[in-house]
Write a structure and sequence with these properties.
The complex is a heterodimer of chains A (244) and B (461). Chain A has 244 residues and is mainly β. Chain A has a single domain, classed as outer membrane lipoprotein receptor (LolB), chain A (Clam). Chain A is built from three helices and 15 strands. In chain A, strands 8-7-6-5-4-3-2-1-15-14-13-12-11-10-9 form a 15-stranded mixed beta sheet. In chain A, strand 3 and strand 4 form a beta hairpin. Chain A is globular, with a radius of gyration of 18 Å. Chain B has one domain: Alkaline Phosphatase, subunit A. Chain B is built from 15 helices and 14 strands. In chain B, strand 13 and strand 14 form a beta hairpin. In chain B, helix 1 packs across helix 2 and helix 7 packs parallel to helix 10. The radius of gyration of chain B is 21 Å and the shape is globular. Classes of the chains: A mainly beta (244), B alpha/beta (461). The interface between A and B is large, with 53 and 51 residues.
Amino acid sequence: MNATQPRDWDVIANRLSRWALPEGPFEPAGPWKLAYERHVLIPEPGGKPAGGQSGELVIERDGQRLRVREAVAAGATTVTTQADFLCADNPLLTPQRWSMDIGWESKMPRIPVAGLEQKRSGRVEGGEIIFSATKERRRPAPQNWTADWLLFAVLPRLPFAAATTLEFDLFEEGELHKPGQKLAYAGEHAVELGGKKVALYVFEQFGRGLLPVRWWLDARHRVVLAASERHLYLLNARAKGGTP
Amino acid sequence: MTTLNSTRRGFLKAGGLGALGLMLAERRAPAAPEKRPPNILFMHTDQQHWEAVSAFGCAHVRTPAMDRLASAGTTFSLSYSANPVCCPARTCWYTGRASQENGVIMNDAWPIAPDMPDLGQWFGARGYDAVYGGKWHVTGRDFKDSFHVITPGTGIGEHSDAAVARAAEGFLRTRKSGGKPFFLNLGFLQPHDCCYWVFEHQGDEPRTRLLPPPDLPPLPFNHGHPQAEPAMVARRHESKTWGAEQWRWYLWNYYRMVEMADAAVGRVLDALDDAGLTEETLVVLTADHGDGLARHGLTSKMFLYDEAARVPFFAAWPGHLQAGRRDERHLVTGLDVAPTLCAFAGFAPPPKMRGLSLRPLLEGRDATPWREFIVSDTHGAGRMVRTAEYKYIAYRDDPVTQLFDMRADPGELNNLAPAAAKADVVRDLAGRLVAWEKSLDLLPLKDPQPSARKNKKRKPA
């Protein structure tokens, strides 16, 4: 097994030097709670990478209920989303009913964010997805669909097998429609972590409205890293409250 | 430069530039302003190629939000950036003045003239809530001095465009119909992340382990380039070692970034609709500049071929402006943004606007006298004169000039400048360029200041 570090990982090499694969059991169907650091990936001209932590994501699964909390730093402001999904018992954990609280924080008095908070909800009814904000919006439900955060719970239930492929529409942040997604198993990948060679299992995702995403899972089917072109999520096994 | 001599007056009349041109264009505008001026939502994407919209026939991208704007309002096919690079293009929008006048002739080097008003200050002083979210990038001016900022965003569109749209959504959902008018500005970054993609893929080796999808867009018909190019353009080919598949892979990724911008725009339009504000809000969407997008074997911007200089432009105000109209006749520039928005707001724009209000065109008054040409410039050296028929490109201290017949050769592959038969056209367009530059109040530039690079706060007068 030859170890090759994925180039995405170069950007957070410093962080990875202090990072280790989580230990302990993991049951894909839950219950579990996983915490991720969100990092930005900024290559400079010439390819020299730079990056830094720019948010966090916590996902908790309990049966068909998934709770999500994500904070995304945008300059001096941070948007925080707390979402609660009740999902169908299908491979994509298709949401059936959900609610979201969106809040803002600012580190700068000159950028006041009071009043930007929102409450959202949604449900599936009669073949339609109904999004509720200050008004209801309806759209036909695609045949196969899920929300982006829920992929962290969908991936662990997929077999590491060449034939594994999912095709679906994605609703980013539960709302932004990104159709035509394909998620496929791409094989085993040896990486070096903490001086040890370990095997990770890779899935790749393509589709409209997103740059390709690579998902790395450990042998227990836990998502440990997910990287798009400009940001990645890294499992933080030591996060407070996380139970990997 | 305040006296009009007869030659210059004739030039302004022909070119439709400056105050006289503005008066001509506005002569037939309604005398009485609307009872309550409209809200104004000015959104911009970053580095969006003018054709990268599904409503314009591009089969490789899906842009339902932009398509929605196209069907609700008017789009201009012949819309050009005043200066196809981030800081200068934005400063031209927000001052209505040419780069040589506002001082921002290239990215992050020279600051904006400190006493030159921007649209945030102008609207804020005239009864509007002037609000900003996302990328600003006007060198030397802190946007918090000009606007109420809801979020600054970050330099990465994939990371924060959705958050910028989220902040705008929060703002819009609290506004009441008929309340104090707002001037909401949103700077989305995508598809600008394509610059990072290029940095990472300097060689021909695919960066990812992912197999490119089978439906990669084809190479454009004008992937090649003219033999003779100005040195600053020719130099840009040197680092491009990509094979055909890598170029096509770049295109595929670029279109995904446009779709990200579109999703952010859609989130904002939904909020506007849900708040019941659509019919009292003028929406304008454009881009600061385009992207090479494999045309002429180029990526990025800072040159004057159409792929960099030409930009999409949408304007919609349901119930007030024509819907579903594509204007393929009138030449439009980023310098038109300031006078247009002020015309709809019902007050005079800042002095010495170099553009024209598009209001008469948007209201369907097509007989309005209009300009015969526009000028764009780049990097303090390259200048372009565009008429309905031709484009003339000249760089300072560069012997290579270019002339393209834009009707017969829209891909800009056949340089007619050396042709004796076109000598009169070259002379005429070069003369227009000289006259345009003489009409400007040039700002003397000192050495670029390191402080400007950091976009250090500089209080406007």
